[in-house]
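Hi F.,

I've been meaning to write this up properly since the lab meeting, where we talked about keeping a consistent format for the predictions we share between groups. The idea is simple: the sequence comes first, exactly as it goes in, then the structure tokens exactly as they come out, then a line or two of notes. No screenshots and no reformatting. I'm using this chain as the first example so we have something concrete to point to.
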Amino acid sequence: MIRSMTAFARDESQSALGKLTWEIRSVNHRYLEVFVRLPDELRAIEPKVRERVAKALSRGKLDCQLRFRPAVGGSGDLQVNDRLVAQLLEAAGHVAQRLPDARGPGVMDVLRWPGVLEAEEQDLGPLQTDALALLDQALDTLVDTRVREGEQIVRHLTERTGAMRAQVDRARELMPRIVAGTRDRLATKLAEITAGLDGDRVEQEMVILTQKLDVDEEMARLSTHLDEVDRVLGKGGAVGRRLDFLMQELNREANTLGSKSVDAETTAVSVEMKVLIEQMREQIQNVE
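Output, unedited:
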């Protein structure tokens, strides 16, 4: 299956530890580029986050953000550093002996002193496990979205390849009449200006001109490339680069057809082909 590179996923979970929320945004990019934003409590899981993203996706620019809101009372009980409080009060008493009019420290003054309040150390292992499990869920959501977008792209491309085949068939139908008409017009003009010229030499020049107008090879290559596009679309997977290369080849053949055109109808065919190719190219830029 073909996957788009543009998608968004948001998943959240609630536990006794608190609320976790993953948001993942993905846009098209030539390679896989991942930006990870984590809360301080969970910075240690960044390598595993990148590993999981790389396993799930091969291309795209991703912004992965995790938010954590601790449960009430779930961030660790506060402990008072009694030893530090005693040292602060002793120091305050010592200063008060020298400055009798000075105001002594209040309760909140002591509590605000760095190190007086200490949070009980938590075991972050369960929280990390929950965060990674939720990441897997969010990545599954993102991949499902990219697959649905990819299905729409495949339908768009299939419609365009069908239209391209119709243009190839049109060109094949036109060429015999165009070549014969060109030959007849040139023969008439040559008859007017070549009195006394070697008839064999004139015929040779006519053959050379007819060969220059022949686009059978271009039509065959266009059909082959279109067959390959359909095959790649049916195969699925990470095929964006392959499809982009095929668009270059299709465009080359369409340009050659235009350069050989001596008729408004074949010129129109070439232009329509290039329009269809450009429409496909725009969609392929978003294929993984």
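Notes:
The longest strand covers residues 60-70.
The chain has a mean pLDDT of 84.

If this format works for you, I'll send the rest the same way.

G.
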